[in-house]
Design brief:
Distance between the termini: 39 Å
Largest sheet: 7 strands, parallel
Low-confidence stretches: none
Mean pLDDT: 94
Order of helices and strands: EHEHEHEHHEHEHHHE
Helix content: 40-55%
Structural class: alpha/beta
Number of strands: 7
Radius of gyration: 18 Å
């Protein structure tokens, strides 16, 4: 199936690894030109090399930015104002319950995952509205619909971003723009392991017992999701094949959010 994405330009934040890199690879396979944003220049260059090994002629620009900072958010939005697609993916909310998390930790996490999404979406959406064309996909996380007290920053922030995506995406079609959210469940990335390690340290006194925490999750199909399984859904949703989808959140978790227990 031709998704109609060839020649489109897409900005993927947090695009150097994990789900972000998988999204970039999936979009590249459909013929998209890419902008990858992230904190580390070395990781971004490695991601660009990975993409070019698969498609030597691919157009990839990289942007080393700290998207927890308003100045970097604005700078990236200005440089990438012409993109057809924005995939917000940068963010790493730490594990911990209410007593474990300070005001500083909450604000530092939300400056990136919550306000980073909101501010970049505002700027890019404004440019898309002027052209009356564009798609924004916010990769959020299923902790926003299945709440975890030991991941309270992530659950609260993700729930806010779900409401944000649905609210903006309900009105943006009036200007030719679609906004959707994607909620991955536990996905086999370095970040997922770091969350499980934190939980294991708090629960068992040893981060090395993170596999024990994973075993308690009652994962669908007996495993975490794969980054590519999330990425391919994102690619479909930002394509013209999903042209009547906006203001909604699609969950990619194997059914985990609605499992009992």
């Amino acid at each position: 199936m031709d998704l109609g994405l060839r020649g489109k330009r897409a900005l993927v934040t947090g695009g150097s690894k994990g789900i972000g890199l998988a999204v970039a690879q999936s979009l590249a396979a459909e013929g998209c030109r890419l902008d990858l944003a992230g904190r580390g220049s070395d990781a971004l260059e490695q991601a660009r090399d990975t993409l070019r090994r698969a498609a030597p002629d691919i157009d990839v620009r990289i942007h080393a930015v700290d998207l927890s900072k308003l100045a970097d958010q604005e700078r990236l939005a200005q440089v990438c104002a012409e993109v057809d697609i924005l995939v917000n993916n940068a963010g790493a909310n730490p594990a911990g319950d209410l007593d474990d998390t300070s005001d500083e930790i909450w604000r530092r996490a939300w400056d990136l995952k919550v306000f980073g999404y909101i501010n970049l979406c505002r700027s890019i959406c404004r440019a898309m509205k002027q052209r009356r064309d564009g798609v924004i996909a916010n990769i959020i996380g299923y902790a926003g619909e299945r709440f975890f007290s030991r991941y309270i920053i992530g659950s609260a922030g993700n729930a806010a971003l779900m409401a944000f995506s649905c609210s903006v995406g309900s009105q943006s079609p009036d200007f030719g723009v679609r906004v959707v959210g994607i909620n991955p469940g536990y996905t086999a990335t370095d970040r997922a392991e770091s969350v499980l390690r934190k939980i294991a340290e708090n629960k068992f006194g040893s981060a090395e017992r993170w596999r024990d925490v994973e075993g308690e999750l009652d994962l669908p199909f007996g495993r975490m999701g794969k980054p590519k399984e999330v990425a391919d859904v994102v690619t479909f949703l930002v394509s013209p094949r999903a042209s009547y989808v906006s203001g909604t959140v699609v969950t990619v978790d194997g059914g985990a959010a609605h499992r009992n227990g």
